[in-house]
Amino acid sequence: MNSPRTSAGGLGWLALCTVWILRIEAAPPPKQTLEVPMRDGVLLATDVFLPEGEGPFPAILIRTPYNKENVGNIGAEGARRGYAIVVQDTRGRFGSEGPNLPFATDGWDGAADGFDTAEWLSGQRWCNGKIGTYGGSAVGITQLLLAGAGSSRITSQHITVGAPNLYRDCVYPGGVFKRAMVEDWLRISKFSPDALTLWTSHPRLDTYWRARQLDRRYGKANAAGVHIGGWFDIFAQGSIDAFVGYQERGGPRAKGRQRLVMGPWTHIVFQDKAGDLEYPNGKTPPTDFHDAWRWFDSTLKGVSNGISEQPAVVYYVMGDADDPQAPGNVWRQADRWPPVPSKPTPFYCAADRTLSRSVPTAPSAWLSYRYDPAQPVPTLGGPQLTIPAGPKDQRSIESRDDVLVFSTEPLDTPIEVTGRVRVKLWASSDAPDTDFFARLCDVYPDGRSMNVCEGQLRARFRKSFAREKLLKPGRLYPFAIDLGSTSIVFNRGHRVRLHLTSSSAPGFDPNPNTGEPFRASARRQAAQNTVFVEARHPTCIILPVVSN
Q1: What is the pLDDT of residue 547?
Q2: Which domains occur in the chain, in start order?
Q3: How many angstroms separate the CA atoms of 69 and 63, rounded?
Q4: How far apart are CA 68 and CA 319, in angstroms?
Q5: Residue 29 pLDDT level (bands cut at 50, 70, 90)
Q6: Does the pLDDT value for residue 341 go beyond 50?
Q7: Residues 6+ apart with CB under 8 A from 350
Q8: DSSP string computed for 507-527
């Protein structure tokens, strides 16, 4: 994946490499360009950069859809540092043969290009058997898929903003097609038009996606790893899930040997600013393992540089970004995720648009709005890739009739929220299918309403993403909406706010409300959606509140 919307393919990946590229001082050593055969005979273009000397050497593998020529500087620097650097165009990309489809053969479904490349690499006379993998975004995804293929050849991985579940984390979060990100990325990266057709022909979590779903195969992952993510990244929860999956359910060389960094970043990490906010000291974590060279020196060369003694988790607790005295805005360390004990605390919605810890007492109360897919709510910040991402002032959409806004009173004392955020929604619709979006916001004393995390759910997938079940118009249903994880202190004087609505475009494909199969026709209709806020059916957001 790459960012921003106006960028050329691969800029996000190149930005992630900047920390290495800037350290290069001399001319790069010569490289070899090879054609490495896969199990089905397809040849993948592969550059090899070797250090001076006889070897053998530890190796670092980079498998990229963004053109291996763009990674030459990393190859040169790695060779100078004593590593054999192997950079490969994935199948169908640039110098490699095969169909130009993303991640089609990077995992374990029939062809397994990552696995085959690792086997080839381990057999080279200049490789000493210690192999690491490196990269971010799509290049992180190729690493995760390689782990799921069950290779025993990989010793160490360094994964930045990766996604272990392509269906949930990338293409259909909550069962809703993430239109701008997917369509823009496929187009900008110049994948075959068949790629979009393929992905839109699989709107359910079916065998196609399960064959690329690492979170069903964490036991196959068998390498020490670093996982780096951002609270406003498109793959924020995916980075956490991969860390926990490797750490707790991985193979013997993976379990207990993982590191996690979560910062106040979008898809481009190690930045001063996210969206419209600049979090104090948020650019650089107080770790060594976020530096890939130091990580590989420790895990591939056995250098004693202190990394093995560092805590497993380093995360940034956000706070009021404008107040230097505000609680939060600090880096913390922990040995696990979730990092601190928290209590799942419901904040209930009321008919007067308030949000509080008090359970509703009204025997009958609801709020309705009309959702028209021809006039969807605009996407404003959040976990996006090709449109402006991160925290953005939401007031321009909060005035819309199709956005329900619930707010607490100004807080008397700060509230820390660290962990997974969920919404339990009771709702009905007069349509056979519709979407529900939920967004948590931090409202500043000056009125700015800054988004923190969000989630969405297509109603037909309320029971299972593998099977569709349409609504019966007018019937009341419970919906569980996952907003992912965050860590933030809502400061004294701030308000906690919840949005409930049914669209966010162009970030997501608006639901036509017809109940027809996905993109089966251009027909669409408005839906009257009703949210219940009564004693028997209390809609609430459940926050992981940390005790002081």
Answers
A1: 87
A2: 11-165+213-334 (3.40.50.1820), 343-546 (2.60.120.260)
A3: 12
A4: 40
A5: low
A6: yes
A7: 356, 360, 362, 365, 406, 533
A8: TSPPP-SS-PSTTS-S----E
How far apart are the C-alpha atoms of 352 and 349, rounded to whole Å? 8
Write the DSSP assignment of 446-463 as a string of letters: TS-EEEEEEEEEEGGGSS
Which strands sit side by side in the sheet containing 31-37, from one edge to the other? 31-37, 43-49, 84-89, 57-64, 127-136, 154-160, 224-230, 258-263, 313-317, 330-334
Asked whether the predicted pLDDT for residue 24 surpasses 80, the reply is no
DSSP string covering 354-386: BEESSPP--SS-EEEEEE-TTSPPBP-SBS-SS
Query: Residues for the chain: how many in total?
Result: 548
Residue that is written with structure tokens 């990229």 in the block:
64
pLDDT number for residue 176: 98
Q: How far is it, in rounded angstroms, from Cα 544 to Cα 507?
A: 27
Whole-structure pTM value: 0.95
Task: For residue range 496-544, list pLDDT tens digits in order.
Answer: 999 999 999 999 999 999 999 999 999 999 999 999 999 999 999 999 9
DSSP type of residue 25: -
Query: What DSSP designation does 538 have?
Result: B
Q: Is the pLDDT of residue 20 over 50?
A: no
